[in-house]
Amino acid sequence: MITDIDNATKIAEYLLQIKAIKLQPNDPFTWSSGWKSPIYCDNRKTLSYPNVRTFIRQSFTQQILEEYGKPDLIAGVATGGIAHGVLVAQELGVPFIYVRSSPKGHGLENMIEGDYTEDHNVVVVEDLISTGGSSLKAVEALREAKLKVKGVVAIFSYGFNKAKESFKDANCSLKVLSNYEVLIEKALEQGAISKSDIDSLREWRLSPDNWG
Question: Is the pTM of the predicted complex or chain greater than 0.85?
Answer without folding.
Answer: yes
